[in-house]
Amino acid sequence: MKRVFFLDFDGTITKIDTCFLMVNTFAGDGWKEIDEQWERKEITTEECASLTFKLFRADLDDVRKLIETVEIDDYFMEFLDLCRKQGDDVYVLSDGYDLIIDMVFKRYGIEVPYYANRMIYEDGFQIACPYLNPDCGQCGTCKSSLMKRLKGDAEQVVYVGDGYSDTCPAEKADLVFAKGVLYRYCLEKGIPVVCFETFRDIIKHL
Ligand SMILES: [Mg+2]
Ligand SMILES: [Zn+2]
């Protein structure tokens, strides 16, 4: 059976959420309120990021040093090997940032196509959203519309994630592996879901 995997990045591939880590490290007072508005879907990802970046006290070098401390799931490389052997396509869909994914992937030698918001450093940080979907109006990178576009002729669409930006694409997958907020959401909505802690659980299940 031809499968395609769509993976969240923050808190799914990485052990911690890099957006949260950056904000918690670099943003001044007021970010929590902005984040809560985003969680309640009162503001979009783009608005949330623009407001939060204004509170940042950091430059590109500070970000780079911080991201060097970020580790990936201990079984992620093994998972990628398995996908390669089975001929399954793998894509990373993130409502986080290209710059951060690139830093982490380069350090681990990971080559997987990813779709994310752009993080631009020019007179402070800014966000750009090349994968915005005007019909959605919430996500910076609209994962559901990317899934539709990228799934090709796969017979099974598998989604792996943990957070708020994963709830919509999880509803459109054939199989969901989830933890955290996403796992609770799937249970509440009656979406068939398999709980995972690390990619080892996913490898075992496959
Ligand atoms: Mg996440
Ligand atoms: Zn969306």
Report what the structure shows.
The chain is an alpha/beta fold. It has 2 domains: 3-15 and 71-205, 3-Layer(aba) Sandwich (Rossmann fold), CATH 3.40.50; 23-67, no CATH class. Helices cover 42% and strands 19% of the residues. It has a 7-stranded mixed β-sheet with strand order 4-3-2-1-5-6-7, with helices on both faces. Strand 6, helix 9 and strand 7 form a beta-alpha-beta unit. It is globular, with a radius of gyration of 17 Å. The model has no long low-confidence stretch (mean pLDDT 96). The structure holds magnesium ion and zinc ion. Residues 133, 136, 138-139, 142, 144, 168 line the site of zinc ion (ZN).
Order of helices and strands: EHHHHHEHEEHEHEHEH
Termini separation comes to 12 Å
β-strand number:
7
CATH superfamily of the largest domain: HAD superfamily/HAD-like
| Bulk shape | globular
**Mean of residue pLDDT values:** 96
Hetero groups: magnesium ion, zinc ion
CATH architectural group of the largest domain: 3-Layer(aba) Sandwich
Q: Can you tell me the CATH class of the largest domain?
A: Alpha Beta
CATH topology of the largest domain: Rossmann fold
Strand content: 15-25%
Write the layout of secondary structure elements.
Blueprint lengths: L2 E5 L10 H9 L4 H9 L5 H9 L6 H8 L8 H11 L2 E9 H11 L5 E8 L3 E4 L14 H8 L5 E6 L5 H5 L3 E4 L1 H10 L3 E3 L3 H7 L1
Parallel strand pairs: 1-2, 1-5, 2-3, 5-6, 6-7
Antiparallel strand pairs: 3-4
Helix pairs in contact: 2-3, 5-10
Bound molecules: magnesium ion and zinc ion.
